[in-house]
Design brief:
alpha+beta; 58% helix; 11 helices; 11% strand; elongated; four-stranded antiparallel β-sheet
Length: 381
């Protein structure tokens, strides 16, 4: 588990970013070919080899337009992706005066490693989560939920901020934004191809005749191949994003430990976040950027993040941390105010003061230190 800012990790992420771009651009062209094959099959009754050649010719003609369209899509995202994410999550930038505790924690981490400080944003969501966004130093920002601020202590908040800073430092944020944008192009073209297919099939009477008379030759097989290519392109775009997302979370956890020198804080933060990170207003693309993207059961097969258990296990094994086990949240003390995780200690239950909502630890009983002093037995407390 190694280290924050290692050149090997940064270079590896950059190489994966280039491979990601090439792979996703290839999938865009594959979708264009599939769409062309589908269009040829729906309009021309001919052998399969003729339809494939015609579709390849259409791809060559459409190649510059597909490339320009994808690049234009990326440029739009480059300019407006942060505004769109803020609109979805309700995130708003805060200053030191508004959030001194959080601001100082992030600033101290940045100063300690000479990192350009990203913008700090808060979304008023009771979920426990955080995420980083941006494509360059002027755009980078870290967004934290109100629920996370209320539930975590300073050490745990610092660990989460260190996790997000590592994503920024190692190029993960830029890579994921680009991946989500191009995957959006693939989803858009795929959905459009399916809509055009069913619309044209309907108007051609394909549904009524079941595809027999008009579909002689290779048209029927060409349609099946085209639809299969669209599904494969869509599935591969998801697999690429999932594989990259899962690995980068381990590296970000390790980078946080390297920054804070406190593996226990990172583990404790993950345990408190576990299962409580679902943002009510966020879509799947935003959830992929978060510290945790909770999934259960069958949905875990499509999870973009490794499980909290596996991340904690890695921190215990390689960073020497200690796992306290899952946290149990107590009931909220007031409507609309999330409670702090409550845990049993040797002198009772710690959690949240019912009147102020601030964290507290019950007063410890006096401890006999042994010996007799000038005013009686030495006792602490």
């Amino acid at each position: 588990m190694a280290a924050y800012g290692l050149y090997s990790h940064i270079q590896s992420n950059r190489r994966r970013s280039v491979a990601l771009l090439i792979g996703l651009f290839f999938l865009v062209y594959l979708l264009v070919f599939a769409g062309a094959l589908l269009a040829e099959a729906l309009t021309v009754n001919a052998p399969l080899d003729y339809l494939v050649q015609a579709a390849l010719y259409d791809l060559i003609k459409a190649f510059p337009f597909a490339t320009a369209g994808t690049i234009f899509w990326i440029l739009i995202a480059y300019k407006f992706h942060q505004s769109m994410i803020d609109a979805i999550t309700g995130g708003h930038e805060v200053t030191r005066a508004e959030e001194p505790r959080l601001y100082n924690l992030l600033e101290n981490l940045c100063i300690s490693r000479g990192i350009t400080m990203p913008k700090l944003k808060i979304t008023d969501d009771e979920a426990l989560n955080a995420f980083a966004t941006g494509l360059n130093d002027k755009q980078y920002s870290i967004t934290v939920t109100r629920g996370l601020i209320n539930a975590l202590n300073n050490a745990e908040l610092e660990a989460v901020l260190g996790h997000e800073l590592t994503h920024i430092r190692n190029g993960d944020v830029r890579m994921l934004v680009i991946a989500v944008v191009i995957a959006g192009v693939i989803s858009f073209f795929g959905e459009m191809a399916f809509r055009l297919f069913f619309q044209n099939a309907y108007y051609a009477g394909f549904r009524r005749r079941g595809g027999d008379g008009d579909r002689r030759g290779g048209a029927g097989l060409a349609i099946i191949i085209a639809l299969a290519l669209i599904v494969v392109a869509w599935a591969l775009s998801i697999v690429i994003r999932f594989a990259l997302s899962r690995k980068r979370e381990y590296l970000a956890d390790a980078g946080s430990v390297e920054l804070t020198k406190n593996p226990d804080a990172m583990i404790s933060a993950l345990r408190k976040i576990e299962g409580r990170g679902e943002l009510a207003s966020a879509n799947s693309a935003v959830m992929e950027m978060c510290v945790d993207n909770p999934r259960e059961g069958f949905a875990d097969l499509f999870a973009t993040h490794p499980s909290i258990d596996s991340r904690v296990e890695a921190l215990v094994k390689f960073a020497g941390g200690h796992d306290p086990g899952p946290f149990v949240l107590g009931p909220p003390q007031e409507p609309g105010r999330p409670s702090l995780p409550a845990s049993e200690g040797p002198w009772g239950r710690s959690g949240q003061d019912e009147r102020t909502g601030k964290p507290f630890l019950p007063k410890q009983p006096p401890v006999d230190l042994g010996g007799i002093g000038p005013w009686g037995p030495r006792r602490s407390g």
